[in-house]
């Protein structure tokens, strides 16, 4: 391009820019400025209005929740056997009442006063502002509180208090009233037994009266917890500039006073900080630097976010956002290091495991299980302090590091709150689900200073908690370690016994035809003669074998011994118990077929017994093995029928040949009551579906006669014969001996392979 043409273009551009384009651009900028200013003004008013409405709802909700919270706090001490026992003592243990019914409520829940009335409404105990008072102090609030006391007495005597909401344990009476010259939430609750073992006459209970004043520490708590600025109480509506009020009324609508606060106006606060010059400067600077900084800012932000996300994922659980095992281990080491140095900041380690979590996954699916984990994590976060650490270690396993523990009771209280939180229902996939949590606790110093040792002992305590019924907590005790070590010793001995082969044997319990009385089958039961402990009951070693995997070689050995022994016996079936652990092994079917083939016994004479609960719980995992076994001609029996789902549709689905009626139902046969309707129904349904039936645990002639009369196919029990060695049952089948007694069979069979 020539220099002349370049000059023309530059001249033309200068001529055009000052004209319509600049005018249009400036007009657009001015219009944009006015639009932004108008939008800012509108958004300011809107934000202030929305914030005010939200705060009014928040204040109303806070007051309503406070009226509900005081009775809820009281139930932590009024639904308690110990409180009834102490209140019935004479003289009263005032120190105990302080620690549990008075000062404790003030210290932990912030109650300003507490009183206890006897069944005749006479004051027994009083606390005010965290100090024990005289019972006569109750007279200060008697006139205000007695209507609530009388109301509750009447409800309890009439039985009208039986219908309670799900989250309320006991009836009560609460209201906002004037007590001792203060506006206060006053709640009356009865002291009742938490176990039901202590009987009380309705209407003659001890009453606990809790008082939470609305013009003292309550206001400070509201200000700090909910960021309600300027919260105060006034007998009259004397709101000042920028303040709002909420009327406090009793249940009957009587005006008590006003809750007054200064609403936060976010829109005005933002608008006040913005000035036209700042806005203009922002626009100018934005226009100048936006192009230059856009890529740099975007790139930096992405890099920072990716680094932050990577760092967060490295130390946090992606499902819940809680610290993961790595961060948990680091914080535990750090807390223990501080404790070792100072011996002041006590540390408690809590291991948690959700109860019935697998059932949620199996019935509602893994998304529901994930939501359960997330919700439980949120509840944990609401309970622990900021100085504590809650972590998810994997699956449904959690752990908490409680630091700065001042007393054993503090950890005890935390455990109780967690158990209570987990016992509340969870809404999952539109279904209300109840689970629970088990907790094991180990204390630094008392139980060790090493993180690994402390974790091990907390795990042992957790196992004890689950073993004692779940939904509870246990502190580690040295006695808990003894069963673990005994279990390890039993595992070593069992492993050695399986390898040696000279301590194990198989006993056989005959099964009789209910019609002819002949022996038609036998059940193989494993026996272990320990060289030092003597005869070991199956219940003592079968669970260990299942947990350690030893059940597979043990079960296969029993199967081989039983098939070889029964090959030439003149019986129809040899029954062999199979563990769920064996059936979950995809190679079990082939191994069983190989064992039966090597023994030379007809597969149709082999009957494998599977417990009902195991079959239903692991049907998918068992399916391949069961199809393979049945294709080979092996029969399948459902053991302990009636103790699980007891669904005949499942029996047809899994092609079961026989059901074995559990001994617990046979034990309940009552000749005077006409036998057992349940067993009769089971046998009728089995007959209609073409299934054979065997009744276990027949102990009396009456039981035998009833089962014969209603058409049970086979009978098995101590009344006919005890389990016996192979040589004895061989003689019995030849008619050369009579049924004997096997000492190991004194307890009913409850194991997988005997």
From TrEMBL:
Q: Which N-terminal stretch is annotated as signal sequence?
A: none
> What Gene3D superfamilies does this protein map onto?
3.30.70.270, EAL domain
Using the record's annotation, list all stretches that form the EAL domain: 487-737
Residues annotated as transmembrane: 21-42, 274-294
* Entries under InterPro entries matching the protein: Biofilm_reg_signaling, CHASE4, EAL_dom, EAL_sf, GGDEF_dom, Nucleotide_cyclase, Rev_trsase/Diguanyl_cyclase
Spell out the CDD domains in the cross-references.
EAL, GGDEF
Keyword annotations of the record: Membrane, Transmembrane, Transmembrane helix
Region entry Disordered, spans? 732-754
Outline the extent of the GGDEF domain: 345-478
Protein name, entry field: EAL domain-containing protein
Organism, per UniProt? Sphingosinicella rhizophila
